[in-house]
Amino acid sequence: MPRADPVAQLGLDGVPAAELAQRWGVAQCRLFHRLDSTLNAIHELGAQGASAGSVVLAEQQTAGRGRDGRTWHSPQGGAWLGVLLRPVRAELAAMAVRVGLAVADAVDALLGRAETRLKWPNDVLLGDRKLGGILCEGRWHGDALLWLAIGVGVNVCNAIPAEVARQAVALMEWLPAVQRLDLLARLVPVLARGLASGEPLSERECAAFAARDWLHGRQLRAPAVGRARGLRPDGALLVDLGAATIAVREGHVELA
Fold it and tell me: What is the pLDDT of residue 66?
């Protein structure tokens, strides 16, 4: 199992793991006081043949990660989540968008209004500051997808370091009484049971993303010099270069 054994008596906001699994209708829910990364734990569960829908939660991550090797500050009070899926195919860029939509829906349900925005490829924003991030990693045997690990980090009740306070936000700034379970109860069942297809984005999902698309119309310097023009159904970013429009499947975004 992962870098540390799950703590049997550990509960999330006072609710033990077995009860969480039952509430959410998932195969299993493992809680850890401290992990290097919930994604690593999910990959280990996948290698052990764990059922799709298995969930890992950590009070803290010591080596939480984002795209391109970036680290994610993961102190106590945040929602640090990993979910194991076994889709028949994986459009990883589309899956990241799909997970982002699920996070945004869960946050907006708590707020009672549509406030969240999504920044391609994997950021969830609230008030133009980063609230959460998503990372999807697949494991293959040849051309066959064995499993997909979904990692989600959301700032809920955790302190935001002063040096990034202008760029990052915790949900408690908007909802002072919020608990992690308030968010996870709306998010985990959707991730564990509703995202297994791995198919390209539907017309409805594309429209939902367009309504929250923080980049749309902005001038970019990277991943290509041009203006952001939305997404393709495979999750690729469309960039208008002036003479042509290209689709970018991965890369780091820099505004011009």
Answer: 59
